[in-house]
Amino acid sequence: MGEVTQGGITTHVLDTARGRPAAGVGVRLEQWRAPAWTAVGRGRTDTDGRCRDLLAPPARLESGRYRLVFDTGAYFAEQALSAFFPEVIVDFTIEDAGRKYHVPLLLAAHGYTTYRGS
Question: Phi and psi at residue 55, in whole multiples of 5°?
Fold first, then answer.
C-alpha cells in the first residue's frame, strides 16, 4: 500500500528592504466557507521568517479557496516604520489537498510580491 500524504500550507516572509527574514510577522490562514471566511490556523514567523505549522492537526487540508493574512502593520510598527500596506492578503485556490503548498511573501514597507513556491 502506498504512503498517504497530507497536504499543508507554509509560508516564508523575507524583508527585502533589510535583506533578511522577517521574524515575528503574524499570519492567519483562512478558508472560504460560504458565506464567509473562517480562520483555520494562525502562527508567527520564526527567526528564519518561516511559518511551518499554519494548519495544525487534527485539521486537514481540503480542496477550495484559502487566504493568508499577514499582519505587516504590526511588523513595521515594531521597527518604528510606517507601512503603506498594514495587512497583506494572499488569496489562492487549493486543487489537490494531498500536496504541500508554500506561499512566500517578499516584503518592504511600500510594496510586496508573492508566488507559489515549492
Answer: -115, 90
Domains of the chain, first to last: 8-113 (2.60.40.180)
Q: Annotate 6-18 with b (16+ C-beta within 10 A) or e (fewer).
A: ebbbbbbbbbebe
pLDDT tens-digit map of 59-97: 889 999 999 999 999 999 999 999 999 999 999 999 999
Contact 62, 101 (CB under 8 A): no
- Backbone angles phi and psi of 110, in degrees to 5: -125, 20
Give the C-alpha separation, 40 to 85, whole Å: 23
